[in-house]
Design a protein that fits this description.
FAD/NAD-bd_sf, oxidoreductase, FAD-binding monooxygenase, seven-stranded mixed sheet, alpha/beta, monooxygenase activity
């Protein structure tokens, strides 16, 4: 019998992970990516709980651990850079704001691509422009290449996925009233291997994180009710950031100076909450389906778990429609829990007044105290939902490797 075929749109995390598993199940997999090549830029991501178990089953745990950023943990600093409280990196069971498996998004994407490149067809520099689902197959039209027909199509793109609108045109992003700018800056002798957080009045936050490439990954975030800034030209976004963060203190001017010489990524922070993740033979996975936002710390784990479960269901079901339905049934509770942010977030960690900043710093000191650690454990358990709140099924068709530890 001829192998079934699938088109996956998106070559970041969820897409190559899904390709990995469906190839194992004997499917012919094509991944299309609108960028001309693999995007190796990006900030820190972490893999926790069930996501890490998926990595084990893929046989990639050692490679990912070897590519870690080396971040020792997180520390909250004042305007003079003095530490108010520190939280060491977590252990293998997922505690801590910094996970044990902390890696740059670009490095992780590269490892996933390398593990699938010999067996999966990757088409870079193209994108889907139309999808015709006949009930028996899906014909995809492309911006540059000829139309092709597949047994199923999966959209594994980001929060603002363009292809998703071809499947579910009414899907809308749930905004969280927050903007973030991400950039890479030069490392100096004064930098260390801790993730440093600084809170400033006006709903502003600045962070610096070490990487394993000899640079520093910086973010600027600000709470705002103004909409549409993500659609402005980069030069206009840079002007807004300089005006907004002027006089914020600490290392802010250093980060702002980098806006003039280095590329940066600026976007509105949001979640994707939609009642269905598929239509006919076309489905969604990862951020395109259920982005929890960077504030959750769960995006990568949800992408990995979703890719594994969806592949298992596609490989096990007689048709994609049943597989997509079963996938939603299994994943919805896990996603719903991940999307429940800390009460008051993001405003609670972006106070507008000086009194609010002072109160937050006091709370941070208490959270980092020995008594709080004994009573409540590491702060990551409070901020992020448990990453292992799903029992992963076993799918013989996926031919797992690695040494699965299993989940309770």
């Amino acid at each position: 019998m001829a192998s079934r075929s699938v088109l996956v749109s998106g070559a970041s995390i969820a897409g190559p992970a899904l390709a990995h598993w469906l190839h194992r199940a004997g499917w012919a997999v094509t991944v299309v990516e609108r960028f001309d090549g693999l995007r190796e830029a990006g900030q820190n991501i972490d893999v926790r709980g069930a996501g890490r178990e998926v990595v084990r089953r893929m046989g990639l745990e050692e490679q990912i651990l070897a590519a870690r950023t080396g971040e020792l943990g997180s520390t909250i600093v004042d305007g003079q850079g003095r530490s108010l409280a520190s939280f060491a990196a977590g252990t293998s069971d997922g505690d801590g704001l910094t996970a044990e498996m902390e890696i740059l998004r670009g490095d992780f994407a590269r490892l996933l691509h390398e593990s699938t490149a010999r067996d999966v067809e990757y088409v870079f520099g193209d994108q889907i422009t139309a999808l015709d689902d006949t009930g028996d197959a899906v014909t995809a039209s492309f911006l540059n290449g000829p139309a092709r027909t597949f047994d199923a199509v999966v959209v594994a793109e980001g929060l603002t996925s363009r292809t998703r609108s071809l499947v579910l045109p009414d899907a809308e992003v749930t905004g969280l009233g927050l903007y973030m700018a991400y950039l890479t800056i030069e490392r100096t002798a004064a930098d260390d291997d801790w993730w440093r957080w600084y809170f400033a009045p006006g709903g502003r936050q600045v962070t610096l994180r070490p990487d394993n490439h000899g640079t520093i990954r910086a973010t600027l975030s600000v709470a705002s009710s103004v909409g549409g800034l993500e659609d402005l030209e980069p030069a206009d976004q840079a002007r807004i950031l300089r005006r907004t963060f002027r006089g914020a203190g600490w290392e802010t001017e250093r980060v702002l100076a980098a806006l003039d010489r280095d590329a940066f990524y600026f976007d509105a922070v949001g979640q994707m909450r939609i009642p269905r993740w598929s239509r006919g033979r076309v489905g969604l996975v990862g951020d395109a389906a259920y982005c929890p936002s960077p504030l959750s710390g769960m995006g990568t784990s949800l992408s990995l778990v979703g890719a594994y479960v969806l592949a298992g269901e596609l490989a096990s079901a007689p048709d994609p429609l049943g597989a997509f339905a079963r996938f939603e049934t299994l994943m919805r509770p896990y996603v719903d829990r991940a999307q429940k942010l800390l009460p008051g977030a993001p405003a609670i960690v972006h106070p507008r007044s000086r009194a609010g900043v002072a109160a937050l710093r006091t709370a941070v000191r208490l959270a980092g105290s020995p008594l709080a650690r004994r009573l409540g454990g590491v702060a990551g358990r409070v901020i992020a939902p448990p990453a292992d709140a799903i029992e992963l099924p076993r799918y013989p068709a996926l031919r797992e490797t690695g040494h699965p530890a299993g989940l309770a």
